[in-house]
Amino acid sequence: MSSIIIVLIILVVLVFIALIKTIQVIPQASAAIVERFGRYTRTLNAGLNIVVPFIDSIRNRIDLREQVVPFPPQPVITQDNLVVNIDTVIYYQVTDARAATYEVASYIQAIEQLTVTTLRNIIGGMDLERTLTSREEINAALRGVLDEATGKWGIRVNRVELKAIEPPTSIQDSMEKQMRADRDKRAAILQAEGTRQSAILTAEGDKQSAILRAEGEAKAAALRAEGEAQAIRTVFESIHAGDADQKLLAYQYLQMLPKIAEGDANKLWIVPSEIGDALKGLSGAMGNFGPMGGGGSGNSGNSGNSGGSGGGRERREQPPID
Length: 322
What we know:
alpha+beta; 10 helices
């Protein structure tokens, strides 16, 4: 009786194992390779799948999502015999699980080695300066070669990126010095341009200021001259309007003489020639209003003689000149 129970237990375990091997659940974005007696049979897609237990076996489970694989820095020699280290990143996706399983032993290692050899071929035809400034060109060339080579492996290379391009330390120091010299040169040029522009603007400002000052002085001189001319015209018109005679002018001359004589520095007087005529007119006017001129009603000649004789007496009374 106990042997029958043991056999039943063994049968139940075998049935349970067979059920486990019969039902295969494949996750989304994955695929599985099924082999029957070591030979490829079919590819299981995502979902619930039934296989023959103990006859069919799962050879490989492959992730069909896009994969990102960074590769370590690779030393590459440029056309000008300089060694640079280049880091690369590959974005790829398995499109055929069967080809990825049977066409290549390890597609990751194959992609890495293909990337290194292709990168060396591309960089070997460029100098250092072009290598540093042609990342897009290198990425496009590398992607084209990888995509063509990995197509038969059931792999599609979507993108290839260069993470870093590191030249030798001596070259980096030289590049830094060159960039520093270029920055200093640009700074000196900008400073010189600024100084030149400042000098130009200052000169323009001084020029405009001098022009405006000269125009202001010219206008002020014109206004002063116009004012003086207007004053002269006003005085002239006032004199003509008042009908001033020789007597009034002589009187004004006599009033101005004390002002001319003011000051200790006045050693020399300049008397206008017209003052003689004015004084003659004034002396004649004063003679007409004197006591002798008033008594002679009709004998003007006697008055003139008296005046002449009086003038003679005044000349005799003058003290002798030393």
